[in-house]
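Many introductory courses stop at the sequence. We go one step further.
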Amino acid sequence: MDPLRRLCLCLCLPLLLPPPAAPASVAVPIPGPNWAACKSLSRELSRLVATLKEPHVVLVSEDPKNWPPRIRCSDACDPSTLDTNNTRCLHRILQGLQHYRDLLSSDIFTARRLPRLEAALDQLLRLVQKEPARPPRRPMAPSETWAQPLLQRLALQRLQSFSTIMSRVFTHSAGPR
């Protein structure tokens, strides 16, 4: 076989063969909290908030700048992202847990302490935090006594919404792999 024909075959043969299989990308989960424990505690928190009896229903509109941390679509708490990178989602959950723990220890709940709810929040915080816990902050200026029941109701409604979403995140992450 002449050298020119051999060169053509060597150059064209790879074009006739099927392309090599792409290496399988393996998603390496980022180590995080004990998902099963977080799942259990977040469900307990949701259950506790749902069992609280409130004296009345009040609709309060607030300035969106003062809203507590919420889990949003941009926080990457969806199942496909949680399997590969849960850092942003856990950070948002940590912010929310700290906010509600601070709120429950504020003057809003002075006359009505909720120790079981506070304990559940503290346990979840210990599981989710990577660094030592920060001391509780006072999230707002002292409230008027007459406004405390209204603020309690609003805080508990928002905590219930937050804990429902958080529980779904932990339920997914604690599922079988």
